[in-house]
Amino acid sequence: MESSKIIYALLLTTFAGLSTGIGSAIAFVAKRTNTKLLTLSLGFSAGVMIYISFVEIFP
Fold this sequence. Notes:
Elements: H1 2-29, H2 35-57
């Protein structure tokens, strides 16, 4: 029981970190400054981080 909670927390943390990395990588790889792409990728990573925070706080 306890190990499943630890694995769940690690998976959520990994998902949040990867999503932030993916969002920043998309903005970094873009050849020119595209503010719409930057806004989309930063919004995606921020939304994932907020979701992960709420999932951890509510229970």
